[in-house]
Amino acid sequence: MPTIAKNEEELKSIVHSAVSCDGDSITITDEKKLREMVIDDLVYTAVFGDTEEIREMAKKVIRKIANEFGAVPSSIHDFYMAMGRGEVDGITTPAVNIRGMTYDVARQMFKVANEHDVGAMIFEIAKSEIGYTDQRPSEYAACVLAAAVKEGYKGPVFIQGDHFQFNQKKYKENPEKELEAIKSLTEEAIKAGFYNIDIDPSTLVDYSKPTLKEQQYHNYVCTAQMTKFIREIEPEGITTSIGAEIGHIGGKNSTVEEFEAFMEGYLEELPKGTEGISKISVQTGTEHGGVPLPDGSIAQVKLDFDVLRDIGKVAREKYGLGGTVQHGASTLPEELFDKFPKSNCCEIHLATGFQNIMYDLIPEDFREKIYSWLKENLKDEWKEGWTEEQFIYKTRKKGFGPFKYEWWTLDKQHKDRILQALYEKFKFLFEKLNAFNTKGLVEKYVKPVKLPYGALRKER
User: Fold this and answer.
1) Distance CA 258, CA 299 (A)
2) N or C: which end of the chain has fewer CB within 10 A?
3) 166 pLDDT exceeds 70?
4) Taking a C-beta distance cutoff of 8 angstroms, is the pair 218, 181 a contact?
C-alpha cells in the first residue's frame, strides 16, 4: 500500500528521495525510484490526503514531475485541424471516460500506447461524472499524469472535459447563471491541464421552432460565448481543442442541414479572428451506456454511419474541422469499430463498456455492497416499469464516488484481473480505430508547452 503523506514535511521526504527541487524548477535524480515508488505515494496523497492543502501540494508536484519527465498536458486541436486540411485521414481518436481506479486504468492505456506507438488517445471526464465519481478536474489530471510517469510514457497527453453540458431547466430559469456555472467549471478544468473541452448546449435545441437555425439558436449562441471565454483564459501557447454538439445524445439523429444551420449561426456570433471549434458531436442512434432490457442485457442499436460520414465530409471540406464525434459507443458490437475511421469520425467517446468490465470482475460481496447502497440511496431514480436489473445497470455508475477508496485498494488478485481485461479491451479498440502507430503523426502537429499547475492567460 502506498504511503499517504500527512503533512508538507512527509511529502517533501517522499519527493526528495527521487527528485531535487530548486525554487520552481525540479530535476529527477532517481527515475527508477520515482516510477517504482514515489509516484504511487504522490498520487495516493493527491487523491486520499487528509486535507485539501496536502492534496493540492501533491497535485502541483505531480504536474512539475510530469512536465520534467516529458508527459505534458496538451491540446489535440492542431492534429484535428490537419484532418480538416486533408493531411491526416483514417484515424479515430479514442476518448476514454475513466470513472473508477483512474490511476490504474490510465496506466493500462499508457501500456498499450507504449507497446503500439499510440499518440492519438484522450483521457476524459464529463461534467456529470465529476460529481458522481468524486473526481474534480485537478484530481483526474493528476491521476492521468502520474500514470504516464509510472509507465514511462513521454509526449503530449490529452485530457478532456467531456459534455460540459447546459442544464435546460436551469438555463430557462436564469440563462446567465447557467452560463456562468459552465464558465466556472471550464476555468477550473483548464487550470488543471484540460486543454480539450467539449461544450454541450445541445440540450437547449428547440425542435418546436420553425427553422433549423432558430432550433439551434441557443446552442450556437452559448457555444460561441464559451469559445470566446476559453480563448480569453487559455494559457499562452495553447489553443484549446473545443468540441461542439448539434444533436443531444439519445435524441433524434442529426442531419447535414442542422449542422450547417448551427455553423452559420455560430460563425456569425463568434468574434472575427477568433479560433473556433475543431470537431462536432452528432447523434447517430446511440444512447449513453446503451439501452438496458428488463433482464439487464443491452438492446441492439442501429447506428447510422451515414450521419457521421456525411456531416464529417461537410465539416472537413466546408469548415476545415477534424470531423464528427461519436458518443455512447463503448457498448456497441465489436465488429463495428473499424468502420469509424472510414466515416470521417475524428473521435469516439467510450465509457460504460469499461465500467461493465470492472463490475463483472470485482468480488461478489463488494458488488452486492455497492448495489445495496444504490437501492437504498438512489431509489428515487428507479423509474416506473424498470426491473431491478435495469435500475442497477442505469445507476451503478454512481457507485464509484462513494466507494472510491475501496475500488482503488481492491485485493491484488481481483484488481489484476480487471486491469488485464481493460488492457486487452483498450488494445482491441485502439487497433480497430487505427490509433496504433500515431505517435509520430500526432507529434508532427502537436508541440507540447510545459505549463505550471493552475496556469491561465488571465484570471477572471
Assistant:
1) 28
2) N
3) yes
4) no
Alpha-carbon gap, residue 355 to 368, rounded angstroms: 16
* Domain residue ranges in the chain: 8-69, 74-358+411-445, 363-405
User: In this structure, is the dihedral angle defined by the CA atoms of residues 299, 302, 305 and 307, taken in order, positive or negative?
Assistant: negative
- Please report, for residues 27, 74, 157, 297, the alpha-carbon distance to residue 122 in angstroms, rounded to integers and kept in the order given: 27, 10, 7, 28
Q: All 3 cell numbers of residue 380?
A: 428515487
Q: Which of 296, 185, 202, 219 is nearest to 253 (CA)?
A: 202
Residue with cell 473545443: 242
Helix, strand, coil proportions of the chain in percent (round to 5)?
Answer: 55, 15, 35
Closest C-alpha to 250, from 218, 296, 223, 282: 282
Q: Which amino acid appears at position 398 of this protein?
A: K
Rounded to a whole number of angstroms, the distance between the first and last alpha carbons of the chain is 41
**Side chain identity at 424, as an amino acid letter?**
E
Q: Which three cell numbers stand for residue 96?
A: 476514454
Q: How far apart are CA 264 and CA 258, in angstroms?
A: 10
pLDDT digits (tens, 9 = 90+) for 315-343: 999 999 999 999 877 778 888 999 999 99
Question: Interior CA angle at 180 toward 178 and 186, to 5°?
Answer: 110
- In this structure, are residues 46 and 58 in contact, taking their beta carbons and an 8 Å threshold? yes
Backbone angles phi, psi at 251, to 5 degrees: -100, -155
C-alpha cell at 243: 468540441
Supply 232's cell numbers: 480569453
Distance (Å) of CA 171 to CA 129, 177, 222, 345, 446: 20, 8, 11, 30, 36
The tens digit of pLDDT for each residue in 31-83 reads 999 999 999 999 999 999 999 999 999 999 999 999 999 999 999 999 999 99
3-state secondary structure of 294: coil
Neighbouring residues of 332: CB distance < 8 A, sequence distance ≥ 6: 286, 301, 303
Global confidence as pTM: 0.95
Rg (CA), the chain: 21
Segment 180-185 shows an average pLDDT of 98
DSSP assignment of 166-207 equals PPHHHHHH-HHHHHHHHHHHHHHHHHHT--EEEEE-GGG--T
Cell 499518440, residue located: 119
In degrees and rounded to multiples of 5, residue 85 shows phi and psi of: -85, -5
